Amino acid sequence: MVQDSAQGAHKVQSEAQTDAANAAGTVRALILTGFGINCEEEFAAAYRLAGAEATIVHLNQVLHGQVSIHDFDVLNFPGGFSFGDDLGSGVVLANKLRYRQTTADGRTLLDDIKQFIADGKFVLGICNGFQVLVKLGLLPNMGGDVTPEVTLTHNASGRYEDRWVTLRVNPASRTPFLKGIDKLEVPVRHGEGRLVVPDDATRAAIEAAGLNCLSYIDANGDGTAEYPLNPNGADLNCAGLTDPTGQVFGLMPHPEAFLAAYNHPDWARRRRQNPAASEEGEGLQIFKNIVAHIAEKNAVTAPTVQLANQN
Predict the structure, then answer these.
(1) Contact at 8 Å (CB) between 210 and 172?
(2) What is the chain's alpha carbon radius of gyration, rounded to the nearest angstrom?
(3) Does 254 qualify as catalytic in the annotation?
(4) Could you tell me the pLDDT band of residue 88, with boundaries at 50, 70 and 90?
(5) What are the residues whose beta carbons fall under 8 Å from the beta carbon of 74, sequence distance 6 or more?
(6) Is 251 within 8 Å of 239 (Cβ atoms)?
(7) Taking Cα atoms as reference points, which of 37, 247, 42, 251 lies closest to residue 130?
(8) Is 14 part of a structural domain of the chain?
(9) What is the extent of the structural domain holding 259?
(10) 189, 201 Cβ separation under 8 angstroms
(11) Residue 270: which residues within 8 A CB-CB, separation 6 or more?
(12) Assigned domain for 278 exists
């Protein structure tokens, strides 16, 4: 009974802190780590450069109820090698989120994520995080029942790919993560990044809804299946997907690895050619976009929150 009361008090306090943060315009990003995830620090750096408050926690802290995803605005699944990719990239972690019960009534973290999205919040997965979202069925989730509809598997090249690629944003995409971006150059680092769409009907539905939000392109700006411009042989030349709401976004390349112009291997020549060019890396814009979108959304709801707190 005492424990339940303490947990209830902690929940009330946490909700009050979240309301205060939202009212002040603070965007709160939760970044999960543990079990072989290894890109959490770059993720946090991206959000902080974009003006958000970034918090890194071990997944167990969420599973054991020590941290609630609902205290945050955007939930993030970074890259790495969760559970060593032993059963396939993202498979074990996806199953843990789907089946590991976090409450006595059988609730899972996937249930919480579904509620998180229903509340209008955002989810981002990069590389291994993208693989997790696809294996969970959160992407593309056209049916709305988080049943896997596509998969990510071994690169067509048969080897791990570590190279820079150029991407084009699908103009039909409605996700705020990609607002105002036409194309960007970012690195890939993966062995299982090939998107496989099982049938023509699913492929057509993804294209019709604009869920194939990022494509690997050639020098002419056209989507390409040519290796190594398309490093993994993905169907639809697809490097990233959103769900129909635009709130869930995943991609194989690593925008968090291009936060400064100096991250690019050709930065010196580029700097000599254009000394006045921005020192920001192209990947940072994705994080700036979502932070600005959430901040604007929070600002709209802030007066209501403040009035409720006064009452």
Answers:
(1) yes
(2) 20
(3) yes
(4) confident
(5) 27, 28, 29, 30, 52, 121, 122, 123, 124, 290, 294
(6) yes
(7) 251
(8) no
(9) 20-310
(10) no
(11) 261, 264, 277
(12) yes
Coil/strand/helix, residue 158:
coil
Q: Is 243 helix (H, G, I), strand (E, B) or coil?
A: coil
Among 169, 290, 156, residue whose Cα is nearest residue 241: 169
Reported as a single tens digit per residue, the pLDDT across 229-287 is 999 999 999 999 999 999 999 999 999 999 999 999 999 999 999 999 999 999 999 99
Helix (H) or strand (E) holding 299: helix 284-310
Report strand pairing: 238-242 vs 248-251: antiparallel
Tell me whether residue 65 is in a domain: yes
How many other C-beta atoms are found inside a 10 Å radius of the C-beta of residue 199?
9
Tokens at 158, concatenated: 């048969």
Helices then strands, each counted (H, E), the chain? 9, 11
| Joined tokens for residue 229 | 């411009």
Q: How many CB atoms lie within 10 A of CB 27?
A: 25
Amino acid identity of residue 138, one-letter, is L
Active-site choice (254, 264, 282, 293): 254
Is 256 labeled as catalytic in the residue annotation? yes
pTM of this structure: 0.89
Q: Is 136 exposed, middle or buried (0-12, 13-18, 19+ CB in 10 A)?
A: buried
Out of 39, 40, 127, 264, which one is annotated catalytic?
127
For residue 258, give both structure tokens: 């291009």
For β-strands 151-153 and 74-77, DSSP reports them as unpaired
Task: State how far the Cα of 154 lies from the Cα of 148, in Å rounded to an integer.
Answer: 17
In which element (H, E) is residue 309 found?
helix 284-310
Q: What is the pLDDT of residue 302?
A: 65
CATH number of the CATH domain containing 76: 3.40.50.880
Strand-pairing partners, residue 151, are 196
Active-site residue, 154 included: no
End-to-end distance of the chain based on CA atoms, in angstroms? 29
The total domain count for the chain is: 1
From the candidates 256, 264, 282, 293, which is the catalytic residue?
A: 256
Decide if 7 is inside a domain. no
